[in-house]
Design a protein that fits this description.
There is one protein chain. The protein has one domain. It starts with a strand and ends in a 39-residue tail after the last strand. The chain is about 5% helix and about 35% strand. With about 190 residues, the protein is an all-beta fold.
Length: about 190
């Protein structure tokens, strides 16, 4: 359920227990590469990988500020700990950039979520220190450089469901500047009688 990321003429995908794999899909002789996760993130073998889908909600790779990044939420109780790593230029090891403990900020009218662990929804493609997490039915922005939660937005019931893989509906992307001034025709018309 984890997405594939394009970076540096290669496709990258995460094995949340062990490391990141990559391949050049256009090569005549595809060469597979593997980069192990940071030592504290590598987990022992899970029986039949039963925990992998759950673990995949708390670990993610993405591209931000021109680097491949690996982020994780590692604490199961408040304060939660977010760690962010970047892949070096040789593509062989990870550098810790941020490690921050944070408490999600929810509106006052919301009940306290005792048994929820934040799911990683996205890494901001322009600001590597901004991480989007889903906590209950809220999308929250965490500023890892400042070490605090910046608040969030309520998600519809189905979108905020902890059983869904967050990447299914929130995809970080950069759009071309010309798109703002382009005319996009309507697919159809809606008439109300």
């Amino acid at each position: 359920n984890l997405e594939v990321v394009a970076f540096g003429d290669r496709l990258w995908w995460l094995d949340p227990t062990w490391g990141v794999c990559s391949v050049d899909p256009f090569s005549d002789q595809p060469e597979h590469r593997f980069v192990e996760l940071p030592p504290a993130s590598v987990l022992p073998d899970l029986i039949d990988l039963a925990g992998t889908p759950v673990l995949g909600r708390h670990r993610r790779v993405g591209v931000s500020e021109g680097k491949l990044r690996y982020v994780e939420v590692s604490n199961s109780r408040k304060p939660f700990v977010c760690s962010s790593f970047s892949l070096d230029e040789k593509g062989c090891c990870w550098t810790l950039e941020h490690k921050v403990a944070f408490n999600p900020v929810l509106p006052e009218r919301c009940k306290v979520l005792e048994d929820h662990i934040p799911c990683i929804a996205a890494i901001d493609p322009f600001r590597a220190n901004f991480l989007f997490v889903i906590y209950g039915h809220f999308l929250i922005v965490v500023d890892m450089a400042e070490g605090k939660s910046l608040g969030g937005r309520y998600l519809p019931e189905r979108a905020g469901d902890q059983t869904l893989c967050p990447s299914g509906f929130l995809v970080p992307c950069t759009l071309p500047t010309w798109l703002e001034s382009s005319y996009i025709p309507c697919a159809g018309t809606f008439m109300l009688h």
